[in-house]
Design a protein that fits this description.
It holds the Pfam family 3HCDH_N. One of its GO terms (biological process) is fatty acid metabolic process. Belongs to the 3-hydroxyacyl-CoA dehydrogenase family. This is 3-hydroxybutyryl-dehydrogenase. By secondary structure, this protein is an alpha/beta fold. It has helices at about 15-25, 40-60, 65-70, 80-85, 95-100, 115-125, 145-155, 165-170, 195-210, 225-240, 245-260, 265-270, 275-285, 295-305, and strands at about 5-10, 30-35, 75-80, 105-110, 135, 170-175, 185-190, 215. An eight-stranded mixed β-sheet has the order 3-2-1-4-5-6-7-8, sandwiched between helices. Strand 7 (about 185-190), helix 9 and strand 8 form a beta-alpha-beta unit. The protein is built from 14 helices and eight strands. Bound molecules: 3-hydroxybutanoyl-coenzyme A (3HC). 3-hydroxybutanoyl-coenzyme A (3HC) binds near residues 61, 229, 261 and 271.
Length: about 325
């Protein structure tokens, strides 16, 4: 199955940077366009990528030439660079630029918010080639819903029921990588209700080329991975909230008693508390099942702007 020649990664956070890195270094995709609406995020992300590559070189895991070539295949695109080729008021100049540069696959790795992702999928469907695979690295949001947004992006004459709409929705798929992307061995692939066989196979081939094993999940809230992980993390936060044990003892129990590489509170910090909350809200809203209701403490911590490792503090320490 053909791999993309020009891959666009949307979002230069920890997931987007990891995906761009494995796509370039492992899959050797000839061009990887990295877009973020915040240019400082791209600068920060690429600095981190450079550190990872330098570490791989120093450990002999990657040759200096391969690291250099991988980095050279990555081109950053910002709203400002995109608007120079279009009008300054064009909020979708970035999508047009990704299309003009020939993107034949996109992996969207923006914040875990439905409205943000729907906006991106509308813009992508409107501006990218009619053959491009439109993939999302969402942790929990419905792929079927994102495919619906893509069809809306084509304009009012195209509907989910007509041939053009079906073909567009057929190109939307979930490719769910795990953090840290260069280290974790899995990519969960999720077909929406409309995803075509060809798209599914292209998504799997891409994940394998990036060095990942593939598992497939139906398009249910949280898919297999987060439908199982998030109630576990939430239960650990509730243990802390109710005073069952200290932060350290909760994490130690799972690390040393069950052989987990990280305790659940450390893992929630590592994923990002805002991301955990967003996923739990999607699970709860999508199922109306109380087992997915986010803990009050998690909500309060996010309200306080305590987002975990990415905001520079190990937050749960304050509650130990
Ligand atoms: N990015 C890239 N590489 C990283 C990294 C990062 N953020 N953090 C650590 N690494 C690399 C290190 O460089 C090191 O590589 P090396 O073997 O080549 O030297 C390797 O990982 C091991 O790192 P350390 O020796 O520093 O530390 P540990 O042995 O403690 O491992 C860990 C770190 C791999 C993060 C390990 O603790 C772990 O596996 N934790 C669990 C992670 C996990 O469960 N991830 C899934 C989260 S859920 C998710 O992503 C889904 C989403 O939808 C929520």
């Amino acid at each position: 199955m053909a791999l993309p020649r020009v891959l666009s990664v949307i979002g230069a956070g920890q997931m987007g940077i990891g995906i761009a890195l494995v796509a370039s270094l492992r899959a050797k995709i000839p061009t990887v366009l990295l877009y973020d609406r915040d240019p400082s995020q791209i600068t920060k992300g690429l600095e981190f990528m450079d550190k990872l590559l330098a570490k791989d070189v120093s450990k002999g895991k990657t040759s200096e030439d391969d690291a250099k070539a991988a980095r050279g295949r990555i081109i950053s695109i910002t709203s400002s660079s995109a608007s120079s080729s279009t009008s300054n008021n064009d909020e979708f100049g970035w999508a047009r630029e990704l299309g003009e540069r020939g993107s034949d696959m996109v992996v969207e790795a923006a914040s875990e918010r439905l409205s943000i992702k729907e906006g991106i999928f509308r813009a992508l469907a409107k501006n990218l080639s009619k053959d491009a695979v439109l993939a999302s690295n969402t942790s929990s949001i419905s792929i079927t819903k994102l495919a619906g947004a893509a069809v809306e992006g084509l304009g009012s004459t195209i509907s989910k029921a007509n041939e053009e709409g079906k073909s567009c929705a057929g190109r939307v798929v979930g490719v769910h990588f795990f953090n840290p992307v260069p280290v974790m061995k899995l990519c969960e692939v999720i077909p929406g209700l409309q995803t075509s066989e060809v798209t599914l196979e292209r998504a799997k081939a891409f994940a394998v080329a990036c060095g990942k094993e593939v598992s497939t999940s139906k398009d249910v809230p949280g898919f297999v991975s987060n439908a199982l992980l998030m109630p576990f993390l939430n239960e650990a936060i509730m243990c802390l909230e109710s005073g069952t044990a200290t932060r350290d003892d909760i994490d130690k129990t799972l690390r040393l008693g069950m052989g987990h590489p990280m305790g659940p509170l450390q893992l929630a910090d590592f994923i990002g508390l805002d991301t955990c909350l967003a996923i739990q809200e999607t699970l709860y809203e999508g199922t109306r099942d109380s087992k997915y209701r986010p803990s009050v403490l998690l909500g309060r911590m996010v309200d306080a702007g305590w987002l975990g490792k990415k905001s520079g503090v190990v937050e749960f320490i304050s509650f130990a």
